[in-house]
Amino acid sequence: MWELTKSFRFEAAHALSHTTLGEVSQEIHGHSFRAEITIRGVPDPVTGMVMDLGLLDRSLDELRKTLDHKFLNKIEAIGIPTLENLSRFIWDRVADKAPVVRVGVFRDSCNESCVYFGPKG
């Protein structure tokens, strides 16, 4: 069994209520995000790959365009734009196209991350 991880970066803004950070969190502010999508499987004997990375790249590029330089509060499908909900949002858009086992979303500048293992994880 093999695991393969692809990542992409995006810049986005959000505002979060109901935290102990108060105004710092409630005001619109931005972050640099990194998302990692890990797939698992056995390489195809013909291609030698778990998955054609070109197909995965297409999905991730579309996802990046959806998130990059956006105000995440306006993307209804995310819900409250937390790391938790972002990781689930990404999973939901990739899981039907790839054998995803985990999605991580990282805010390295804040030393924060969240990993989602799917609805049955």
Automatic annotation (TrEMBL):
SUPFAM superfamilies from the UniProt entry: Tetrahydrobiopterin biosynthesis enzymes-like
The keyword Transport appears for this protein: no
Cofactor(s) essential for the protein: Zn(2+)
GO BP term, example: tRNA queuosine(34) biosynthetic process
UniProt record similarity statement: Belongs to the PTPS family. QueD subfamily.
Keywords assigned by UniProt, alphabetized: Lyase, Metal-binding, Queuosine biosynthesis, Zinc
Cofactor details (free text): Binds 1 zinc ion per subunit.
Protein name: 6-carboxy-5,6,7,8-tetrahydropterin synthase
Binding annotation for Zn(2+): 14, 29, 31
Pathway(s) where this gene product acts: Purine metabolism; 7-cyano-7-deazaguanine biosynthesis
Pfam families per UniProt: PTPS (PF01242)
Cited function: Catalyzes the conversion of 7,8-dihydroneopterin triphosphate (H2NTP) to 6-carboxy-5,6,7,8-tetrahydropterin (CPH4) and acetaldehyde.
Catalytic activity: 7,8-dihydroneopterin 3'-triphosphate + H2O = 6-carboxy-5,6,7,8-tetrahydropterin + triphosphate + acetaldehyde + 2 H(+)
